[in-house]
């Protein structure tokens, strides 16, 4: 199995620490009983410790590095350049958010399923959540409000950490990145919606919903087409797809 050099690993972790604005950081490399290496690359568990806003925080993370096989590197290299990156969830949509209710009113939420967490553009998590978890009718009315609420919350959070939002990630930078990540969000949302609709009944990843009749399958396919068509139309109207 091809290994990753310590120099390369140090460079990757340095970039992660920089994007997280960590100070006085250090890391230790852990190990799995079985190290995974495939088309998606090499998985390396890391324990990263650094100071944020004056407090030391421990980040147990798993690095998913680019494939060491040169044949595959160019297939996953981004064809675009975003303005900024950070540690992102990678698969944040309604199926990965648990809500606690009181009297049928949501009081709090918990995000789950961090297996695709990676350093990426924050615009990706934001746009993917919106297009994969809302209806076309809701986006038509509230899309700009969603963006404003996100950025306002980001500003408030950064200011609490004595970080100037406009220097780290301005609203113009966010809007630029939204255009860059639009195609990727469409591709992943399409897969997620197909899977959640019950239409993926073959392969190693299958739908949890079981469709037993042809009528159910037809209804699911029609609903899937309606949802994805709405996403394509909206992304195009926002200028996030060049069709």
Description of the molecule:
The protein is 47% helix and 21% strand. The chain is of the alpha+beta class and 243 residues long. It has two domains: 6-76, no CATH class; 86-238, no CATH class. Strands 1, 2, 3 and 4 form a four-stranded antiparallel β-sheet that branches. It has a two-stranded antiparallel ribbon with strand order 5-8. β2 and β3 (41-52) form a beta hairpin. α6 packs antiparallel against α7 (214-238). It is globular and about 60 Å long. The chain starts with 5 loop residues before the first helix and ends in a 5-residue tail after the last helix. InterPro entries: CHK_kinase-like, EcKL, Kinase-like_dom_sf. Residues 4-160 form the CHK kinase-like domain. This is CHK kinase-like domain-containing protein. It comes from Brenthis ino (lesser marbled fritillary).
């Amino acid at each position: 199995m091809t290994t990753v050099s310590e120099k390369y690993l140090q460079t990757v972790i340095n970039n992660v620490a920089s994007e997280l604005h960590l100070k006085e950081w250090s890391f230790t490399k852990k190990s799995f009983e079985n190290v995974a290496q495939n088309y998606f690359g090499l998985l390396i568990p890391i324990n990263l410790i650094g100071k944020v806003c004056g407090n030391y925080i421990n980040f147990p993370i798993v690095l998913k590095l680019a494939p060491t096989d040169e044949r595959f590197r160019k297939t996953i290299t981004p064809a675009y350049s975003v303005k900024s990156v950070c540690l992102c969830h990678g698969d944040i949509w309604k199926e990965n958010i648990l809500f606690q209710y009181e009297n049928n009113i949501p009081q709090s939420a918990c995000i789950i399923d961090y297996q695709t967490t990676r350093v990426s553009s924050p615009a990706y998590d934001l746009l993917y959540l919106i297009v994969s978890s809302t209806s076309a009718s809701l986006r038509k009315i509230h899309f700009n409000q969603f963006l404003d609420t996100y950025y306002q919350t980001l500003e408030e959070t950064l200011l609490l950490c004595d970080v100037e939002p406009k220097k780290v990630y301005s609203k113009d930078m966010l809007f630029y990145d939204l255009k860059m990540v639009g195609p990727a969000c469409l591709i992943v949302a399409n897969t997620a919606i197909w899977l959640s609709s019950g239409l993926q009944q073959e392969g190693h990843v299958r739908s949890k919903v079981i469709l037993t009749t042809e009528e159910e399958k037809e209804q699911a396919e029609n609903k899937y087409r309606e949802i994805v068509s709405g996403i394509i139309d909206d992304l195009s109207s926002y200028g996030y797809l060049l069709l």
